[in-house]
Amino acid sequence: MLIKRPADIAPSEITPRSLFDGRRDFIRAAGLGAGAALLGGVLPVPAHAQTAARGAKLGPLARSAFSTDEKLNDYQDITGYCNFYEFGTDKGDPARNAHRMTTRPWTVSLEGMVQKPKTLAIEDVLRLAPLEERIYRLRCVEAWSMVVPWVGIPMSALLKQVEPLTGAKYVEFVTYHNPKEMPGTLLPVLDWPYVEGLRLDEAMHPLTLLAVGLYGEVLPNQNGAPMRLIVPWKYGFKSAKSIVKIRFTDKEPLSAWTRANGREYGFYSNVNPEVDHPRWSQARERRLGEFTKRKTLMFNGYGDQVASLYTGMDLKKYF
Ligand code: MTE
Questions:
Q1: Are 168 and 249 contacting, i.e. CB atoms less than 8 angstroms apart?
Q2: Would the CB of 227 count as within 6 Å of ligand 1?
Q3: 36-86 tens-digit pLDDT
Q4: Please, which residues have CB within 8 angstroms of residue 227's CB and are 6 or more apart in sequence?
Q5: Greater model confidence, 40 or 257
Q6: Which protein residue has the closest C-alpha to ligand 1 atom 3?
Q7: Structural domain spans, the chain
Q8: Domain 45-310 part of CATH 3.90.420.10
Q9: Cis ω for the linkage preceding 105 (within 30 of 0)
């Protein structure tokens, strides 16, 4: 396998690489030849994902007012077509490999510029607020999107536990890293562990979710069990999976993707159809399972709720 330097690899490359690799199950499941998929067919889902064991039921769940009423992507799409590079860069790799990840016991430590640093077990996190179902659009930087019925609690419910100091302006999310369980981390695709960051006001925003489930069930490992970030107005890579540490800081965190290629992946990464990725347009996207591309919406359609966070900022400069 070709090992690329971090600066040479980009999420955009994954789909074509899967197709060029001619991964058998990928193409068999799609019922498409590689050429057909490249010419603009629906995005394929690996066959094995369709037999994946379902998680335990969560509930009762309140339906959030923030939910979209768009058609949901089905469970197979959401759990079979994943980005979780710790398990491999092919979209089917996380569904194939993530069962190796140990998710119990699991703790998350909240540290840095806070009054009361704490380490919480996942069971404690689940008790912080009532579980909600939030149906969100997820727009990937690779210009595909899907609609997911997440289950979670507001991220603010967790962050408030440690009383951030007034000087804290950002939060850094550090994710699980165990090479014994994560074959993808044996390759220097990114500088592991996967790290992401948000401004504190973004992290505290009511739309920002700490997801613990989807489709009313416990989150499958490949989608970031047992807890992951969801920031629906940003490109999907900001939504760090399998979080183990949250660090409050006064400096902008350096995310794994910005570290790998800062020219292509900025800190803000707000969905913005007017700012192209240096190598492709972000004006349109393909919804998983659909043939015709649709227009990408500013802030992924969540502008009414979040545009005020960026008043006065040049979003071409702070991309
Ligand atoms: N988190 C970790 N730890 N590792 C990853 O590779 N990929 C990101 C994000 N979070 C990633 C991650 C990217 S590129 C996307 S698009 C979303 O997870 C995908 O989430 P999904 O697979 O649940 O759709």
A1: yes
A2: no
A3: 333 344 555 554 444 457 889 998 999 899 999 999 999 999 999 999 999
A4: 106, 108, 122, 125, 152, 210, 211, 212, 219, 242, 243
A5: 257
A6: 241
A7: 45-310
A8: yes
A9: yes
